[in-house]
Design goal:
Order of helices and strands of chain B: EEEEEEEEE
Strand content of chain B: 35-45%
Distance between the termini of chain A: 40 Å
Strand content of chain A: over 45%
Largest interface: A-B, 25 and 30 residues
Structural class of chain B: mainly beta
Number of helices of chain A: 0
Radius of gyration of chain B: 13 Å
Order of helices and strands of chain A: EEEEEEEEEEE
Helix content of chain A: under 10%
Shape of chain B: globular
Shape of chain A: globular
Largest sheet of chain A: 7 strands, mixed
Oligomer: heterodimer
Number of helices of chain B: 0
Helix content of chain B: under 10%
Chain lengths: 119, 112
């Protein structure tokens, strides 16, 4: 059974750093792109970036380039999303997703990680 | 890369059919048959309803169908049911962004 299991909810202060994770199981982790999707409170879905764990090829949305870092450790089948200095506007639910083909559709989603940034 | 344009809300009575549009450009919706649709209930992760314009994943009701004409893709829900009340998002491959993918603005479907 394919599963993407994300790390738990986080409460952080502005300026702090954070790294959240997404562990894949039940499939060849190095053979599928993994994407990160942001959903701010009451708002829509936004693609942040994608990574191919097989060779760490990473692509970012222009809106998120330089704001976050996406990485993966294929030895433990885990993808990461990290911030070096959080802002209140980073408060959101973050989903990881496995892209099932070049067309980019997603069958498997993580359960979501809620990040709250507040002083 | 701007989000694809969807109506903010669509409503219908039980049993009726509704259609949600997703308008892009020739660089995304119009240029590729790579449009997918997702349903999201409050507090839940999105669920794939249609992929590659008109294909339905296993387990998705045949009341959901997808199509495309020019730069606009559409999701039709026939025989509307109370459980269909949710947010719906389209997504497309795009050649306008280094990322390669873009979501629509989202549509709230209300069952009257």
């Amino acid at each position: 059974e394919v599963q993407l299991v994300q790390s738990g909810a986080e409460v952080k202060k502005p300026g702090e750093s954070l790294k959240i994770s997404c562990k894949g199981s039940g499939y060849s982790f190095t053979s599928y792109w993994i994407g990160w999707v942001r959903q701010m409170p009451g708002k829509g879905l936004e693609w942040m970036g994608i990574i191919y764990p097989g060779d760490s090829d990473t692509r970012y949305s222009p809106s998120f380039q330089g704001q976050v870092t996406i990485s993966a450790d294929k030895s433990i089948s885990t993808a990461y999303l990290q911030w070096s200095s959080l802002k209140a506007s980073d408060t959101a639910m973050y989903y990881c997703a496995r892209l099932d083909s070049y067309s980019g559709y997603v069958v498997y989603w993580g359960q979501g990680t809620l990040v709250t940034v507040s002083s | 890369q701007s989000a694809l344009t969807q109506p903010a809300s669509v409503s219908g009575s039980p049993g009726q059919s509704i259609t949600i549009s997703c308008t892009g450009t020739s660089s995304d919706v119009g240029g590729y048959n790579y449009v997918s649709w997702y349903q999201q209930h409050p507090g839940k992760a999105p669920k794939l309803m249609i992929y590659e314009v008109s294909n339905r994943p296993s387990g998705v009701s045949n009341r959901f169908s997808g199509s495309k004409s020019g730069n606009t893709a559409s999701l039709t829900i026939s025989g509307l049911q109370a459980e269909d009340e949710a947010d719906y998002y389209c997504s497309s491959y795009t050649s306008s962004s280094t990322l390669g993918y873009v979501f629509g603005t989202g549509t709230k479907v209300t069952v009257l």
